[in-house]
From TrEMBL, chain A:
Involved in formation and maintenance of cell shape. Residues 121-271 form the Rod shape-determining protein MreC beta-barrel core domain. This is Cell shape-determining protein MreC. InterPro entries: Cell/Rod_1, Cell/Rod_MreC_2, MreC, MreC_beta-barrel_core. Transmembrane segments: none annotated. GO terms for biological process: regulation of cell shape. It comes from Thermobrachium celere DSM 8682. The keyword Transcription regulation does not apply.
UniProtKB/TrEMBL annotation, chain B:
GO terms for cellular component: plasma membrane. One of its GO terms (biological process) is regulation of cell shape. Keywords: Cell membrane, Cell shape, Membrane, Transmembrane, Transmembrane helix. The chain crosses the membrane at residues 6-27, 34-59, 65-84, 96-118, 130-153. NCBIfam families: shape_MreD. It is a multi-pass membrane protein. This is Rod shape-determining protein MreD.
Amino acid sequence: MDFLKNKLLTIILVLCLVLTIFIGVTANNKNNEGFFQGVITSTIAPIQKQIYIAGQRITNIFSFIKSISTLRKENAELKSQVQDLKNKLVDYQKIKTENEEMRKLLQFRPDNNFKLISANVIGKVGDNWFNVLIIDAGQNDGVKKGCYVRAADGLVGKVIEVSSNTSKVMTILDENIKIPVVINETLEEGLLVGNNNSNTCKVSYLPNDTKSTVSNLVITSNITNNADVVVPSGIIVGTIEKIEYEKINLSKTAYIKPAVNFYKVTKVQVIVK
Amino acid sequence: MKRNFIIALVGLIILILQQTVIMNISLFGIKIDLLLIFIVSISMFIDKTDIIFTVLPIGIVKDAFFPYVFGLNTLILVLVSLIVCMIEKKIYKDTIIIPMIFTFFATLIKLAITLLFLLPTGILGTNYNYIGKTVVFETLFNSALAVIVYNYVKRMMNSETLKREWKF
């Protein structure tokens, strides 16, 4: 066997074979977790965190310059919005007190039996195929696979892989995401799925005669099939931009503008039991 | 030794930049792969024994951060750098079009290997419109950017600091 005499060719062939086996095993489990990966990500995470923050600061400068022209208009809109919200706040306080009293009378179990773990976004991975964030909280902080992640504006996604000090979070823009959601105004249930890794996502399987309309709010539902995970209902996912009829599954699909700006997200919270 | 170490270090810095800054920049929804362009450009200056051991740590670090699969990026980077390394010796490379062509085909190889492993396992959805768009735009964007990256790499490889060996 002449080719075995060539050491380089042998090394390459063995290397390719080993890598193919690794790909096969991890792809079969759809899981890239392990001690080795954990050590590498934990070592690089601190450097990556600083560079990510620096990058975000530069992006913020550019977006600030871009927004100067629209500031006056935005200010007027926000002032009228604040006035509306002030009126709603009076009603809200009244209803909240009533609700608390009723819950006490009926001895309802509170649904806020969860705690929040704060984390920083330190990177984005997955090339053009996946929309995955790396956060600097992992197993040591209590993060588990499947936990939901939220930012100040709304839902970010859910944890898909956990190592000792970092975790990978599949965002709601990812093609593989599947999260049960509810339309806030109509209480119709649907399934949140990604939209080709674009800046929007969609809610599939809405009833054919849906009453949901454009600008309705989409929030999380508390349905889950994972006993280790707690899903608080009412986390804002986004607003409906358009609704289309899907011929294939005879249902309607709503296209959602996410509440979170994924270009600017830096701080998140992992929801754990 | 020194040269390979510095190249691997620069590669790791580019990988970190890719994961922190470049992933936020997209054109028509497609992100460029600066690391692949760098590896292709570097492969035109180093011999094949050195390139494998320089590319290997970069690929492993990229794989540690990659979701679902381990080894895919290392395999892509090793194969691409090796192919470029073997072909470049046989052609006249002193024109700017050569790194562009190399990057064009390297991106195609990268996408082909990715699809070959991720489509049958069901990790990647079968949205052929999006796959087609990614193939077309990523190859074009990467090839266009190769001109700039290649010039920087060429300057780096010809610098006196990199040519001088470490003295222990």
